[in-house]
Design brief:
Elements (H helix, E strand, L loop, with lengths): L1 H6 L3 E6 L1 H4 E2 L2 E2 L1 H16 L3 E6 L2 H5 L12 H24 L5 E6 L1 H5 L1 H16 L3 E6 L13 H11 L4 E6 L20 E2 L4 H6 L11 H15 L2 E6 L5 H6 L6 E3 L8 H9 L2 E7 L1 H10 L8 E6 L6 E5 L5 E7 L3 H4 L10 H5 L8 E8 L2
Parallel strand pairs: 1-4, 1-7, 4-6, 5-6, 7-9, 8-10, 11-13
Antiparallel strand pairs: 2-3, 9-10, 11-12, 13-14, 14-15
The structure holds adenosine-5'-diphosphate (ADP) and the ligand N[C@@H](CCC(=O)OP(=O)(O)O)C(=O)O.
Adenosine-5'-diphosphate binds next to helix 2 and helix 10.
Length: about 375
């Protein structure tokens, strides 16, 4: 069954958790060497591999005299600044010794939230793959502030799966997959081999980080799997501390937890609107407009908009809410706030007369609209 599922995969994103390549003392270079051997074995079978690796903070914090989690953002950023080059050097040595070249790509959420920069990042990654180089991606921890953070690399890896149009996300962690409860706390916990759909019940099983080096725990992995599924990619969570696990996985062994792709896949652009682009404001629409969007597949016209909140430019993402403030969709807006205010509630035939121009009848076009389900 697994063999069939993985047989069609041409490009895979592999996310490596801090707990897989580091311990209390810092980076474990032996682990990095072992994973790079596995990755080279997959490449030798013709797979294209994109890596998302954590571990910068764990690799650098020792120099600051820290053994647990850094207690402030500046300390975490300083640890990442020290550790990122150490992390990359370890990967470079491990891959180069097997004749494979690597490249470092550091991203913030802002880099992907802007469509032009998103496409730039995509071009860079595609070029690296074309030249047979393994991209190694991490969040650019040293410059991020809260508004531009991915927050955790599980989330980042789901976005990279969409960005690189990969059909599989493989998350390497320090645990054998998703269990029905945290196996560190409950010795009787049972591994779940396959998840058809991430329901609330599945989300409730997943707890927080299990070690002092991990960040999001199982919860952020399950959420990443949910996002990847909507884009049409499957996700596998396996134990990256077991040498040789990746080739075994691709041989079809039923290891870890496999999350199936959703049947009604979202196009890459809609996925980007739903999960990567950050909304800048809200539109409050009447019941007729809400129904036209939700039930009849229509675009949003100015006549149904009753109120706005926040400041936004043309091309920003906004949340669409009903008159009770309940959000039901997200979309990319064609008019900036100053342009929208005078045409609120007006007919489309009046737009050009009021503004002196128009970008189109739609305030949010159907093609740039994602409904919450
Ligand atoms: N239901 C669960 N199944 C498996 N692991 C879980 C579960 N709930 C919480 N965890 C914890 O999640 C940890 C993995 O996440 P994390 O520590 O963030 O590692 P990583 O560095 O790989 O991202 C496991 O070590 C485990 O203790
Ligand atoms: N960017 C951070 C990793 C953040 C993170 O999500 O860590 P993890 O939960 O181990 O995947 C670092 O390199 O230390």
């Amino acid at each position: 069954m697994r063999k069939n599922l993985l047989g069609h995969v041409k490009r895979v994103v592999i996310k490596i958790g801090s707990g897989v390549i580091s311990d209390q003392k810092g980076l474990e270079e032996g682990q990095i060497a072992s994973i790079s051997r596995d990755v080279c074995a997959l490449r030798a079978r013709g797979l294209e591999v994109v890596l998302v690796s954590s571990g910068a903070v764990a690799a650098g914090r020792g120099d600051l005299g820290i053994t647990g989690r850094p207690q402030s953002i500046p300390l975490k950023q300083a640890a990442a600044a020290i550790g990122q080059s150490r992390l990359m050097r370890a990967y470079k040595e491990a891959f180069n010794s097997q004749g494979t070249k690597v490249a470092q790509v550091l991203l913030t959420r802002d880099d992907l939230a802007n469509r032009r920069r998103y496409l730039n990042a995509r071009n860079t990654l595609m070029t690296l793959l074309e030249y047979d180089i393994v991209p190694i991606i991490n969040e650019n921890d040293t410059v991020v502030v809260d508004e531009i953070r991915f927050g955790d690399n599980d989330n980042l890896s789901a976005m990279v799966t969409n960005l690189t149009e990969s059909s599989l996300l493989t998350i390497l962690s320090d645990v054998d997959g998703l269990y029905d409860k945290d196996p560190r706390k409950h010795p009787d916990a049972r591994r779940i081999s396959e998840v058809e759909r991430v329901t609330e019940e599945i989300e409730a099983m997943a707890g927080g980080a299990g070690s002092l080096v991990g960040t999001g725990g199982m919860f952020t992995k399950v959420r990443a799997a949910k996002r990847a599924a909507l884009y049409g990619a499957g996700t596998i969570i396996v134990n990256g501390r077991i040498p040789g696990i990746l080739p075994r996985l691709f041989d079809g062994e039923e290891l870890g937890t496999y999350f199936l792709p959703a049947r009604d896949r979202m196009a890459a652009k809609k996925h980007w609107i739903a999960f990567t682009k950050k909304p800048r404001g809200k539109l409050f629409v009447d019941e007729g407009a809400r129904r036209a969007l939700m039930e009849n597949g229509k675009s949003l016209l100015p006549s149904g908009i009753k109120g706005v909140e926040g400041g936004f430019e043309r091309g920003d993402a906004v949340r669409l809410c009903d008159l009770d403030g309940v959000e039901f969709a997200k979309g990319v807006i064609n008019y900036s706030l100053p342009e929208l205010l005078p045409i609120l509630g007006k007919k489309t035939s009046e737009i050009a007369a009021i503004l002196g121009y128009k970008y189109g009848d739609e305030v949010v076009h159907r093609d740039n609209l994602v409904l919450n389900k």
